[in-house]
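Lab channel / #folding
Pinned by the channel admin:
"Please post every new chain as: sequence first, then the structure tokens as a reply. Keep commentary short and put observations after the output so the thread stays searchable."

First post following the new format, from NK:
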Amino acid sequence: SLTQLSDNPGSSSLREGMITAGQNLASAFQQDSSTLQSLQSNADLGVQQSVSQINTLTTQIAALNIQVSGLVAAGKDGGAFEDQRSLLVNQLSGLVDVSQTDAGNGNITLTTSNGAALVVSGQSFALSTQIEPGTTFHDVYSQGTDITSSITSGSLGGQIQVRDQEIPAILNKLNTLAYVLATAVN
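Reply from TO:
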């Protein structure tokens, strides 16, 4: 539309076409921005859901720790419970990077990669989320400490990275493109 108008600047129909094309482009920029913001909100919802899943799994793992250690103390085989616990630890490791250590007597200790306790023997330590000051997004806390920036793997790490880094970078590029284009046309 711009090229056609530059060839024939006196044409009112080409001017109207250029205005319509500009309005359509502005609407497309706004729609893309809105879609990206929606995706960012969905990623934040995913963070909250992942934290809830992590807490459910750690509670179940702690309960299995109690069962396994009770059987070990009684001199019985806790293999079936250990297998269940291993499956849950595998599920947990898909959500967040987990370090596992043998705590003795059939117990395991689980921490995040940065050392935040998740399970110690028969006790689980729940993660929580709180809205980050200045945004509407949730940060992840362990026992009152913000650990969001240290979560870099698992689906939770991916959700945080998409929400906090990838989408804002794309939004910034989209805003820059819109500004440069508007400035050039003006």
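NK: The chain has a mean pLDDT of 93.
TO: also worth noting, DSSP finds four helices and seven strands in the chain.
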